[in-house]
Design goal:
single chain; 126 residues; alpha+beta; three-stranded antiparallel β-sheet; 4 helices; 41% helix; 17% strand; globular
């Protein structure tokens, strides 16, 4: 099974944004893996981009937090295409023990509605 290598340490920087105080890694697939996503110190995230109206069902932060940071990093850097980034998000949530209904709901939300975030990040990187 995959693995996260460190605790996630962040500090709030305002407006539902957080900054990594220390970088961390995720081993994709099985641990140890040659496929490692390294999120650097200073990376900023909003964790899960859940519309406020749904926060009573799925909070932006929670046991899915590390997976959300990995997903944000994949979207912001395009280190993978959108489909693979979303699949890694699903895998990482399973590693973290996120319940099946919650991880599937979040996975399908990014598969179906994540195109705006994906495209906005592509525009920023140009």
């Amino acid at each position: 099974m995959s693995n996260f290598t460190k605790e996630l340490i962040v500090k709030p920087i305002g407006d539902n944004r957080w900054e990594l105080v220390e970088g961390f890694e995720y081993h994709v697939g099985t641990y140890p893996s040659d496929e490692v996503i390294s999120v650097p110190t200073g990376f900023t995230t909003d964790f899960a981009s859940v519309p406020r109206v749904f926060w009573n069902i799925i909070s932006p932060v929670g046991n899915h937090g590390k997976a959300a940071v990995i997903h944000d990093y994949c979207y912001s850097t395009a280190c993978y295409d959108k489909k693979r980034s979303d699949e890694i998000f699903l895998e990482a949530m399973e590693v973290l023990g996120v319940s099946k209904w919650k991880r599937n709901t979040m996975f399908y939300a990014v598969r179906w509605f994540g195109w705006k975030a994906w495209n906005d990040n592509r525009k920023k990187s140009k």
